[in-house]
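Here is the promised in-class demo. Please do not try to memorize the tokens; focus on the logic of going from shape to residues.
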């Protein structure tokens, strides 16, 4: 084979790879749009009478996740099954965002932390790496850390809305979450930096709870007066 033939063959490989990446980018753009729609929907819980609308918003969000499952199913067909991590960077950020959104929905519904397996089921992908397109553990953890920041914001807005019991429950949840992360030996630099931000979320919520205590509203909250769960 001549040098020219060799480089022509190499160009064929590069072109095929570029085509795969372009198809993946189109699928990811569709996922990002759906994620924005779900986020916009859920942001409504922070506004006015948003707490009363939580069940309805969660139901609507779950309908959007039906679209997410379809889009992820299409994405899986765009590259060889054994090359997940070769193209992982293309969808990593949107997948982390979707994990956060799924975790937020589950928290709003049950005030519990969604498992990685449950998120994978919501998204219609695998939890186990060996089974193909899956939810990477670090992507799951990154999404959970985003949830912590969202709940810190929710704690503040709960007080504004007159729901004094919710920040207390959020505080308990976030402290349990912080304890869980302390059990991990995080090597990923990006994830480690994200985790470092958790202490600020904990502090922010503690300040809300302390303010409620100073104003005597924590007793009112634990006495059963305040917003609905």
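The designed amino acids, position by position:
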């Amino acid at each position: 084979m001549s040098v020219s033939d060799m480089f022509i063959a190499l160009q064929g490989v590069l072109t095929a790879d570029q085509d795969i990446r372009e198809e993946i980018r189109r699928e990811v753009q569709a996922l990002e749009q759906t994620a924005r729609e779900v986020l916009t929907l859920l942001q409504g819980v922070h506004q006015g009478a948003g707490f009363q609308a939580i069940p309805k918003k969660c139901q609507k969000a779950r309908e959007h996740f039906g679209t997410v499952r379809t889009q992820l199913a299409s994405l899986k067909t765009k590259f060889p099954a054994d090359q997940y991590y070769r193209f992982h960077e293309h969808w990593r950020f949107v997948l982390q965002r979707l994990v956060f959104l799924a975790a937020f929905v589950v928290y709003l519904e049950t005030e519990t932390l969604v498992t990685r397996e449950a998120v994978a089921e919501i998204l219609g992908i695998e939890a186990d790496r060996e089974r193909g397109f899956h939810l990477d553990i670090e992507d799951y953890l990154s999404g959970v850390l985003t949830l912590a920041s969202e709940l810190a914001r929710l704690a503040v807005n709960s007080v504004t809305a007159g729901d004094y019991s919710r920040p207390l429950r959020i505080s308990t949840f976030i402290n349990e979450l912080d304890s869980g992360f302390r059990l991990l030996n995080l090597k990923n630099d990006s994830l480690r930096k994200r985790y470092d931000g958790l202490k600020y979320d904990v502090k922010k919520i503690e300040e809300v709870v302390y303010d409620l205590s100073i104003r005597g509203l924590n007793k009112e909250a634990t006495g059963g007066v305040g917003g609905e769960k």
